[in-house]
């Protein structure tokens, strides 16, 4: 079969290209999850994707806590606690980062394997 | 009708036969497809000109949509994208590499491009971008099955006499008796109104009874209801919702969790898609017509398919033998009478159909007024 010997090269190259493309797509879709923020209040737990911009209101013992997710980061925009120190915290986006509002009992943590873009700053935080 | 047009319709019909044969083959995984319907495309790849080839691609997609009743739904868009893109890619690669590539390599390209296009359109019209998490698995399985299919095609082309006789135009295709059910304009218009109603219905609370109505409507239109596809749609959308958490955590499974918002969104989407599929079935049952030459070739395509599948059902023996037998007898024009007798269907009860579509419209209206 002369024909199949010649085509073996072309077939192998196509097979190789397909496998490479699958590997490239796999590393993008499985590795680079954008992670999500978990919001814990006294009564319930909420989770939101960081990929979608949105505003969230949760209730604590003192009242409303206003959380904003934008550009893949989450921060507390406003809170009904007296000091409002939680609103001055830097927006969080990578694993192990957190923001807490102790008076209103609201805790923001980042969940998921977002360790790829962990920065030195974040760890020191 | 000329011999070339008959040949186009006949090849289109063989893709339909093979896609229904594929249903009969047991598979370890529900979404693992062999892609048997692409076998005729691989076999005629070299001998057909671009125009006839593209027409066969269209016939394959539209014919499958007509037979399965998904022609007027998002599923048709997904399958059309896969068929056209992979068909064009396969022929282009063959033209570029000529004898430097075998049908195995071409089949690999076809499956890869088809899966990629289907994922892109599925993300756009139904599932959202999170469907891409399924890409590595789908593409890998596609690679395996297309490899097997390519080998099968290569062996078939080298051994079969039928494939060669397709090339040198020595076959005279008999014209089967073309017959078509009467067009039902009221059913068609009611189905179209239902599609609009489904798109405008707002919450899960109203979509649930609406979906039930749509399934009753599909039964009234005398189209079979399959349970597995909607169930798979529901489950896959629920699983995909894990990747886009939104709202109160209902059930936490390690690092992922089912959240209230995203589950509601998933079920809303699933019910809407299920209703649209049922509407597509109803619209197909109204026997819509295509005008002109393309329409008559499509009709011939479906008539050949009717013959092929009836002689496939009546012959005994191995799968390959039954397919071969069906091809021979349909091409030569035997078994026409059987096909015609089988086509007799019970008529649709139009008043009941219109009443049920009224219910659908009413539910949609209610959901928008009582927000």
Layout of helices and strands:
The complex is a heterodimer of chains A (125) and B (371).
Chain A: H1 2-31, E1 36-40, E2 45-49, E3 54-60, E4 63-70, E5 73-79, E6 98-101, E7 106-111, H2 120-124
Antiparallel strand pairs in A: 1-2, 1-7, 3-4, 4-5, 6-7
Chain B: H1 3-24, H2 39-44, H3 50-68, H4 74-97, H5 103-127, H6 135-159, H7 161-167, H8 185-200, H9 204-220, H10 228-241, E1 246-253, E2 256-259, H11 260-285, H12 292-314, H13 319-332, H14 336-342, H15 350-369
Q: What this model shows, in words?
A:
- The complex is a heterodimer of chains A (125) and B (371).
- Chain A is of the alpha+beta class.
- Chain A contains 2 helices and 7 strands.
- In chain A, a hairpin with a 4-residue loop joins β6 and β7 (106-111).
- The N and C termini of chain A lie far apart (68 Å).
- Mean pLDDT of chain A is 82; it is low at 115-125.
- The radius of gyration of chain B is 22 Å and the shape is globular.
- Chain B starts with a helix and ends with a helix.
- Mean pLDDT of chain B is 86; it is low at 339-343.
- Chains A and B meet through α1 and β2 of A and α5, α6 and β1 of B.
Can you tag this structure with a few keywords?
A: 125 residues, alpha+beta, 2 domains, 4-stranded antiparallel β-sheet, 3-stranded antiparallel β-sheet, 2 helices, 28% helix, disordered C terminus, B: mainly alpha, Arp2/3 complex 21 kDa subunit ARPC3, two-stranded antiparallel sheet, 2 strands, 71% helix, 3% strand, globular
* CATH domain class name of the largest domain in chain A: Mainly Beta
Radius of gyration of chain A: 23 Å
Q: How do the strands line up in the largest sheet of chain B? A: 1-2
Helical percentage of chain B: over 70%
Radius of gyration over C-alpha positions of chain B, nearest whole angstrom: 22 Å
Q: Uncertain runs of chain A with pLDDT below 50, 5 residues or more? A: 115-125
- Specify the helix fraction band of chain A: 25-40%
CATH topology of the largest domain in chain A: mini-chromosome maintenance (MCM) complex, domain 2
Poorly predicted segments of chain B? 339-343
Largest sheet data of chain B: 2 strands, antiparallel
Q: How many β strands of chain A by DSSP?
A: 7
Summing up helix and strand content along with how strands pair, one would put the structural category of chain B as mainly alpha
How many domain modules of chain A?
2
Pair of chains with the largest interface and how many residues each contributes: A-B, 33 and 31 residues
> DSSP strand (E) fraction of chain A?
25-35%
Strand percentage of chain B lies at under 5%
